[in-house]
Amino acid sequence: MRIFLFCCLLIVCAHHFLQGAENSGVQRESLIAAQRLAPVKTDHPRDTLRSFMQAMDRYVRALDDDAERADDHLAQAVRCLDLSQTNPVGREALGREAAKHLKEVIDRVIIIEYDKVPDDPGGKRWRLRHTEIVIHRVEQGDRAGEHLFSPDTVARASEFYQRVRDLPLLPGTLGGGIRPPWHDRYIPHGLKGEVFGVAYWQWIVMTVLIFVGLVVRHIVKAIAYIVQGFTARTRANWDDQLVAALKGPITHLGTTGVWFASLHALGITGTAYTVISLLIKGAFFINVAYLAYNLAGFLGNQCEQRLRSQHPELNPGILALITQTLKILALIFCLLLGAENMGFNVAGLIAGLGIGGLAVALAAKDTLANLLGSVMIMIDRPFRMGDYIVARGVEGTVEKIGFRSTRIRTLANSLVSIPNAELALANIDNLGMREYRRIRETYNLVFGTPTDRIIAFCS
Questions:
Q1: CA distances, 147 to each of 44, 81, 130, 142, 412 (Å)
Q2: How far apart are CA 282 and CA 88, in angstroms?
Q3: pTM for this one?
Q4: Are 329 and 296 in contact (CB under 8 A)?
Q5: Which of 113, 178, 254, 380 has the most CB atoms lying inside 10 A of its own CB?
Q6: From edge to edge, which strands make up the β-sheet containing 125-127?
Q7: Which distant-in-sequence residues (6+ apart) come within 8 Å of 200 by Cβ?
Q8: What is the DSSP secondary-structure string of 145-178?
Q9: 293 burial class (0-12, 13-18, 19+ CB within 10 angstroms)?
Q10: How far apart are CA 295 and CA 328, in angstroms?
Q11: What tens-digit pLDDT sequence spans the chain (459 residues)?
């Protein structure tokens, strides 16, 4: 009996132990998940410096094991930098490089003692001892009240690193993960001189890439001509129109795509990177917009042809307007997408366009009302060209449905134009859609006409 009770006690204890271990495991996983979403603390200089140093240490440790997690840690470190005064083009890449350089500099010149860093949220400015590295309080913008590394510190991070790069890392530090680029090992020293901030070898490689891009352009164009030859043998016309719409933009995308893909491999930094990046990215997204514009035109033309075949009475001008609207919307969307990728404030631009569009709409409200009226007439189709209607006191045959007005030919052979905004709200009597016609006749009968004659006439 004692042995049985002892075994039951062991089973109960093991169950509680396993349940506790399972609960602790769940709590540990929840804690890890919550840490991944934890905000970067920048309430005062001590928090900012600690957040930056810890994020960069995690970045360096994760470089060889998990590149995706390493990028996340580096992005957290960049959150500690004030990038408000940097150029929007290449801002993300500049912040990453500045974070690496700052970490390399700090780990070469000082061991951080966090208890000596001020923790006053109201402090305006703090400078790391014996350096020009400054953490300041942001006074305006989305991050007002936070303490971040100052814009001057961010701009001069590369300069600071060049001054101390020959110094060893202090004991217990990891640095910023900067590794010698491939061109430091393979490019001769004589080709490392600079012109306008770009090394000689980089100028040579860019010249070669320009040539390669032009070669790729001709290759893509030759492939497009081959495909166009195959589509010309088919009976359908839509494939010929599709190839014609894609041939031009894809040819240019082949060129700019080569330059865009090789931009980071060149290792260009500073102002030269900003200018070259702006030119290449701008050309790339302009070609993307060109492609979207042609595709929208192709789709609009296909829809227009189908509508014309099914509804020949529709106004060709309105169908063309729909196609042009699709093309303009596609163009605007791609250009805004390109501006967003190049770092510009698209939200402010859209807000400005909204205000400008509102002003234009108010100034041209009558024109827009007539245009919308024509669209409603086209969709609802209360009448068609050639119908005999009565509307707004005007009776006659519809000759033309335009963007602004509808023209009616009256019985007096005059031409009356009625604004579409009024016509869309009017009661329209479409006499041309009658299934039967009622004829009323009046006959004068001589008094005393025999009844049998009247009955015979009615019969």
A1: 5, 9, 20, 13, 82
A2: 13
A3: 0.49
A4: yes
A5: 254
A6: 125-127, 134-137, 147-149
A7: 190, 191, 192, 193, 194
A8: T-EEE-HHHHHTHHHHHHHHTTSPPPTT------
A9: buried
A10: 11
A11: 555 555 556 665 555 555 554 555 444 444 344 445 567 899 999 999 999 999 999 998 888 777 778 888 889 999 999 988 877 666 787 888 889 999 999 999 999 989 989 988 888 899 998 899 999 999 888 888 899 999 999 989 988 988 888 889 899 888 888 776 655 666 666 666 777 667 777 777 778 878 887 888 888 888 888 887 787 787 777 777 787 777 777 877 777 777 777 766 666 666 666 777 777 777 788 888 888 888 888 888 888 777 777 766 666 666 676 777 788 888 888 777 777 766 666 666 666 666 666 666 565 567 777 777 877 777 777 888 888 889 888 899 988 887 778 899 998 899 998 888 888 888 888 887 888 888 888 888 888 888 898 889 888
Angle at 135 between CA 131 and CA 138, to 5 degrees: 155
Residue 171 has which token pair?
Answer: 């004991």
Q: With b meaning 16 or more CB within 10 Å and e meaning fewer, what string describes 83-121?
A: beebbebbbebbbbbbbbbbbbbbbbbeebeeeebeeee
Burial of 331 (0-12, 13-18, 19+ CB in 10 A): middle
Q: Which amino acid is at 229?
A: G
Give the number of residues written for the chain.
459
385 is written with which tokens?
């060209």
